[in-house]
Amino acid sequence: MKRVGKWVFFVVFILILFLTYTSVFGIYGENGDYKITYIKGIEDIRWGIDIKGGVEAVFAPADGVDANDEQMNAVKSIIDLRLVNQNVTDYELYPDFSNDRITVRFPWKSDEENYDPGEAIKELASTAQMVFRGGSNQDGEELLTGKDVKRAYVSTIETSNGNHSIVVNLEFTDEGKTKFSEATKKYLNQTISIWMDDTCISAPTVNSEITDGSCYIEGGSGDGGFTAEDATALANKINAGALPFNLKIESYGTISPSLGTYALTAMGIASVAALCFIFLFMIIMYRLPGFVAFIALLGQLSVSIMAVSGYFSVFASFTMTIPGIAGMILSIGMGVDANIITAERIKDELWTGKTLDGCIAKGTKSSLSAIIDGNITIIIVAVILILVFGPANIFSSLFGVSTTGLIYAFGYTLLVGVIANFIMGVFASRLMLRSVSGLKFLRNRRLYGGKKKS
Q1: 143-169: per-residue pLDDT in tens?
Q2: d(CA 201, CA 276)
Q3: DSSP per-residue string spanning 359-416
């Protein structure tokens, strides 16, 4: 067996502890009155309707509009896209074409404080017509519209006084890039105002011609700029586009969680208790390989939490539901199983009288095929669940809208957990085991489940 540096164990161990801590508690800071999130933790997870409750609203065309089926489908698609842009995966949309009504159900935000359903549904019904105009007045020349924008996203910039300001970045289409270049050339050293519906959200002065097809919007002066929530809502509405007609809210209300108020706390306590039991079981049954396996399980769990909370900004956050938790638990079980198979194979080899290094090499190699076979099967099933029962709602006509979202949540967390198992339970655990076996005081065969070599 090729030896691994003794320091590798400590590096991987510290890295996993760091990932576990930050994925659970996150890393936050402050900039004046603003809370800055550097790394998202569990408190940033948006919990599903079944766990935390949510909002139900019924929308109808405003101003007496008699909508046709095509327009109703367009409204449904835009509301669907706006929910997806907010990383809401646990939602339900029920269009009633005969009565021109759309019922929407979705969970509260992770940082919700007021629990006001009327406020929560405002951005879903907003038309969000964005226009770039020459000058600072609403009757100025129309230069670009929201159709010229390819995508919008939120970021921060450093201001001249060293603080950070939240902005909405815009990337234009090829046609929009040409229009914006011509507009900034024409209005050089003048104002180009940006309007959202009838409100001016920014009125910057053009300092140079912009030809790269991108810019950013700062909040209007005098109001402290954008908050993170306002900037995100604006970016979501720009990405989703405008509704074909104005919507009015016919009725709305709150949805109580099916599990009850204290269910989340109870699940958290149960999870900690289960991890403690797994730790004791692995240590008692498999000794040092069991300890290493538990560290790898912590790493697997942290990766699963990261994929849900939006830990990495390049990956969207996810709405966690009860089936989603079930998928995560099942993947943890797969991780435990993978490490038990490896530990048992190493133990079997040790009782044949081979050297410790040889037993670890043979045991990890002989267990790999069984682990891969089991996990690949789960991955295939999880991918099918995600593709068939995801936001596209391919099977909604057969099983219902609510069913498709729940099955998607299960498939998503299951897939992420199994991939994390390959990273932590297969690669990282074996790397740590080979490294720690190089430490002289840890080369006693009994620490690996074998008998002392005569």
Answers
A1: 998 788 888 888 888 877 777 788 888
A2: 52
A3: HHHHHHHHHHHHHHHHHHHHHHHHHHHHHHHSTT-TTHHHH-HHHHHHHHHHHHHHHH
> Would you say the C-alpha torsion 200, 201, 205, 207 has a positive or negative sign?
negative
Q: Dihedral angle at the C-alpha atoms of 191, 194, 199, 203, nearest 10 degrees?
A: -30
* Contacts (Cβ under 8 Å, ≥6 apart) of 280: none
Distance of CA 394 to the CA centre of its chain: 22
The residue to which tokens 């896209």 are assigned: 81
Residues 131, 197: contact at Cβ < 8 Å? no
33 in helix, strand or coil? coil
Q: How far apart are CA 280 and CA 277, in angstroms?
A: 5
Amino acid at 451: K
Q: What is the domain range of residue 76? A: 54-126+243-255
Per-residue pLDDT reduced to its tens digit, 241-283: 667 788 888 999 998 887 766 777 888 888 899 999 999 999 9
Cα–Cα distance measured from residue 454 to residue 287, given in angstroms and rounded to the nearest whole number? 21
Of 255, 287, 316, which residue is a domain's last? 255
335/421 same-domain check: yes
Instruction: For residues 189 and 173, give the distance between their C-alpha atoms in angstroms, rounded to a whole number.
Output: 24
Residue 1 covered by a domain: no
Rounded to the nearest 10°, the torsion over CA 342, 347, 351, 354 is 60
Same domain for 137 and 122: no
Query: In the β-sheet with 142-145, what is the strand arrangement from edge to edge?
Result: 142-145, 130-134, 192-196, 199-202
Give the tokens for residue 449: 């489940």
Q: Name 259's Cβ contacts closer than 8 Å, sequence gap at least 6.
A: 50, 51, 322
Domain count, the chain: 3
Q: How does DSSP assign 151-198, residue by residue?
A: EEEEEEEE-TTS-EEEEEEEEE-HHHHHHHHHHHHHTTTSBEEEEETT
Same domain, 218 and 336: no
CA distance 341 to 25: 32
**Whole-prediction pTM:** 0.72
